[in-house]
Specification:
Layout: H1 2-6, H2 9-39, H3 46-66, H4 71-95, E1 99-106, H5 111-119, E2 125-131, E3 134-144, H6 148-158, E4 163-169
Antiparallel strand pairs: 1-3, 1-4, 2-3
Length: 200
């Protein structure tokens, strides 16, 4: 009975493609996160993700080769790759790994805003510049990406139309910024050193 089910059309055109699709979602999602971890300097945990990525991929490609005459398997393989890429990016966005640079350019006096940021523990560098319409203030910060949702409302509260940019940072050290090691999902795998905040 079991052998008959494994050789049935339902298994070949239904169960196997679904398994391939799910396996591709898993391995591509892991691969996307692994690539992002490498770009952000998580050298210790990235190889672990790579191990599971390639193992799941071997299982998926093995089923494709075992059902090489089944076109549904090819569709499932490609669809799983596309879905896995999207899901991997969504997962990384929710994890909010690494650091980011935030630059604000505003013509408005930022004194009170800077004081408020420093009260929250953020290191802020402020200097004057020349914009298209005169003197502007440039505010520069390096923060954890997990803190960005907290910072954006503060920026909007300072001035709703303030121009700002956000860029990823590979590494940062010797700065003044609040770091909560306990919120790092990969703290167990990191080497035994942490960022040191220097406060005057």
């Amino acid at each position: 009975m079991e052998i008959g089910f494994l050789s049935s059309d339902l298994f070949a055109f239904g169960i196997v493609p679904v398994l391939i699709f799910l396996a591709r979602i898993c391995d591509v999602s892991i691969g996307t996160i692994r690539y992002i971890l490498i770009s952000k300097g998580f050298k210790n945990i990235a190889p672990i993700f790579g191990f599971f990525e390639v193992t799941i991929w071997l299982l998926a490609i093995g089923q494709v080769m075992a059902n090489i005459t089944n076109p549904v398997c090819y569709i499932a393989y490609g669809a799983g790759f596309a879905a896995g890429t999207y899901i991997g990016m969504e997962l990384e966005e929710r994890m909010r790994l690494g650091m980011a640079i935030i630059r604000l350019i505003t013509p408005h006096p930022p004194g009170e805003f800077i004081s408020r940021l420093r009260q929250y523990g953020y290191g802020v560098t402020n200097f004057a510049g020349e914009g298209a319409n005169g003197t502007v203030h440039i505010i520069f910060m390096v923060v954890k990406r997990s803190k960005i949702p907290h910072l954006i409302p503060l920026i909007r509260d300072f001035h709703p139309h303030t121009f700002y940019t956000i860029e990823d940072v590979r590494t940062a050290s010797e700065g003044i910024y609040p770091i909560e090691i306990k919120n790092n999902p990969f703290v167990f795998f990191k080497r035994p050193f942490y960022f040191i905040s220097k406060r005057k």
